[in-house]
TrEMBL record:
SUPFAM superfamilies linked to this entry: Prokaryotic SH3-related domain, Zinc beta-ribbon
Alphabetized InterPro entries for the sequence: YjdM, YjdM_C, YjdM_N
Pfam families with a match to the protein in the record: YjdM (PF03831), Zn_Ribbon_YjdM (PF08274)
Residue ranges of every copy of the Protein YjdM N-terminal domain listed in the record: 4-32
Occurrences of domain Protein YjdM C-terminal (ranges): 48-114
Name of the protein this chain belongs to: Protein PhnA
Transmembrane segment boundaries: none
Amino acid sequence: MSNLPPCPQCGSAFTYEDAGQYVCPECAHEWPIHAGTDAGEEKAKVYRDSAGNVLQDGDTVTVIKDLKLKGSGGVIKQGTKVKNIRLVDSDHDIDCKIDGFGAMSLKSEFVKKV
């Protein structure tokens, strides 16, 4: 006998796992395996700078090392202040505008909160 939960929509006991979710073969309802009592609450990702300080939207940060730009051949110098950052869920955590360079994405590991 399986320990899988019944379908929350139709109550069928014939649910199965597929690619990280439960599937009901009777009503075709799919739901994530990690769904539980806190299914509606999703933990927000915590973004930290190179020193471990928590970053938030609108913070001002300083670049901690020279960053070479792909494509243009320019360099963002160490100590450059970046104001009003926006945090995004991507491989580069920070979207910002840098004077003289324009819109840019940075990794949080290369900045320090001011």
